Here is the input.
Amino acid sequence: MKAVKIISYLILSLIFLYILSGFFLLPYIAKKEIVKNLDEILITKTKIEKIYFNPLTLNLELKGFSLIDEKDQEVVALKNLFIDFRALKSIEKKHFHIKNILLEGIYLNIIEEKKGVFNLASLLKPTQTKEEETNQKEKTKLIDFLVSKIVLKDTNIDFTSFTDKKKYNLHLKDINYTIYDFGTFKNSLSSNNLQFKLNENTDVKISGGIKIDPFIAYGKITISNLKIKEILDFDKSLFNFELNPEANINLALNYNIDTTNDLNIFLNSEIFEINNLKLNQNQKEIARLNKLDLKYFSFDLNNQELNFKDLTINDLYANMILDKGGVNFANLLKEQKAQKEIKSSNQENNLNNKPWKINLENINLNANFDFNDILNNSKLNIKDIKAKTSNINIVDDKINIKGASLVTLNTKYIDNNNKLNISSSKTDLTHDDIFINGSKVEILNSALKKDKITFEDQKLKLKITTNNLGLELSKLSIFDEISFDLSNLKLNNFILEDKNSNISLSSKNSNLKVNNFLLDKQNNISINKSELYDTNVNFFDSNSSFDINTKKTNLKISNFNLKKDVITIGQILLKEPKIDIINMESKLKIEAKDINLDLNKLVNKENLFKIEKTNLNNPHISIILPKSIQTKDEIEKIDLKKKESDKEVENKKTKRVNLGPINIKNMTLDFEDKNLPIPFKTTISKLTGEVSAVKNRANSTSNLEINGVVDNYGVAKITGIVNPNDIKLLTDVNMKFKNISMKNFTPYTAKFVGRAIKDGKLELDLNYNISESNLKAKNSIIIKKLELGEKIESKDAVSLPLDLAITLLEDSSNTIDLNLPVSGNVDDPEFSIAAIVWKAFVNLITKAITAPFSLIGSLFNFSEDEINSVDFNLKESEITPIQKETLDKIALILNSKKEFAISFSPSFDEKNEKEKIANQRALNIQKYLIEEKSIDKKQVILEKEIKKTSSNIDLNLKEIKK
Here is the structure.
């Protein structure tokens, strides 16, 4: 009994000592030892206001803890620490269990004095002791633990950096954090909730759950009004720009981290916004963003996938500047050596990683862009850019973009060095699908629309404008080769003005279609088929004063190839355009319609241009010569321009030209000459024929044969050979015209002889030879039943007894059969074949009146020299075969033309002969004609006058008066 009592007292004493030491002794010793030990190892001074411990409930409370540095500033402070142990439960469940931990009023004062040197990291005093090395570490299992609740209340953290010229401060205020069931016991899943304020504006909230082993964490992070500048100002040495203080980020991010098997991280955002961002560099605004709004973002580490949905970028402005330092955007970050090493390391590591998948859906961009190239003195401005894509998929270097579109309001480019201005308004570009695989790009169904484009080169004095441009591309591929299947180009009101060359080109409603285009890696180009259709074009050359208009042009080009400066074309088809050509100075007008031109196998090399074959079907061409109102000075100016142009052509290196046979079928040619008192007009129809190969070699020739119908009942045939390199060098052409109505030539007879033609038919057999622009021709002209009409006043008409001349030329069947030499200069502005023929005819009639002997000789194919004299040697008077040749021709003329006589006078050379021989010569001639040739005596007239200058007897033709 006594022993029990002693034991009871002993137990009570121990309990009393335990309670007494727990309440008083333990807190005192703990406070003293904590202060002592911390002061020994830390450079700060430790203060603890009070420690409480309840040995019955095992509650521990510490108040007023702080670490004070040498400047008497708090580095670390804790207002209150409360720990509620659960010893019995820990023993029962065999784990370390704490019910509650409360940390209230924590304060951390973090200071960075030098780059990367923080005060908290240097709190420990220097020590000479070395850590003991262990060769082998035993694996020990830590006891499981559980903290039912941890509360962090009213915590504040100040961060101050003195590494920059301006002090940097960051404040984390009102930090409140609560975590439940944190520990390893029963693998508990704890929930937590963290809230704090960053500086004055940013609210941060983190809530979720956490598990220790294996580590699992999930939850949501919400950041409101994060001021970006407050973060970036931590190290300004990294950045080459200034950010405005209003720029902020709003973020709501869900996270899920799981290490059960491998590290798996999944993040997805509900809100991601960047607002009111402005970047300045060198006191210039280089970028501005009103708002970036990303509705959904996800990051999946396990599947290595990134997803972005509904990204909207509003009012983005970028001001790119290129100067001696490079492009401003490339220098926004200062790349440091350590970063380069990290980048290199990352590149090596990435080689072994499987590719990431990046998906973007519904991207919208609204922006403006300026580019100032200070180095080259040029500027680019693009206003109101609107870009959209429905989907972008990126896997490694493979990119697929669907439903992309780009719209701009105005684009302007100015190059002050090269005096170049380019502007456009309202650009609309769309792509159905874009596939990018490394350097290979494929684009399906692209379309480009532009309201207006202006290109102006002030140096070259060249200006190009167009309205309503439309371009469609099908299956564009860019890799080693560039190709597309189909292209449609539409231009409205295209204008090209070249003031240097004084030419202009304009078109309305131009439509160009291109099939199967290919540009290979050797820069060779091939086009399977291209077509220009329903196009109206105007071309004006003020140098030559030519104005050319085409309407409804339809041009097809097949199998075009460009390879090493060699162009080959399989076929060119020009179908039924309407072409008007006007010379604005001479007013010459050429009209063409219903043309079907087929060119086969074209080749264009450095020194060769070749067309294998040309077919020209059904063309209708009209040539109209206007009334000439040019002054002498104007004609001289035209001649001067032509000489200058010819000189330029001569100076150019000649290229070999080989044009294969040209086939003409069913051609109609209208010719109208208004430069006459009565306008002349004729039509040659059903022109069919062939021109052989045309080559520009020195000795090359071309043969031609063309047949046609003149007006209603006449026929024409043209054959010959020409030198196409220079028709002035060799032109030998025969033109035959039969059954041509003379009545149609009244405009020319009215102009030159002042008479109309009432009736008559014309047949021409013309042989033309042109040399050095001079035309020489032998012409067989047959005029049947020529009947003159009324007289017509003309200032150019020659006053002649025309009726007498016609009677003189006609034979018994009322046919005039002439062989006329015709000459003229083809460079004459008024040159025309009909005018030359009729001018020669007028000259012939004039000769019939003024020199009938010469004319009649030509009717018998005798030259004037053959019949205008009888030649004798000195001191000879007999009629020899030499004299008979001349006298026989005279006899032939006199027998055919009984209305005419031959007259002559005795003649001798008084220096070498006597007068007697002159009379003998004359009498012998008279006797030969009358007696041997049976010429009527009245047709042989011997004059009394004796000439003393020559041994030859000159002959004269006289009309016998009835």
About this structure: DSSP finds twelve helices and 49 strands in the chain. The CA atoms of residues 247 and 277 lie 5 Å apart. The first helix runs from residue 2 to 41.
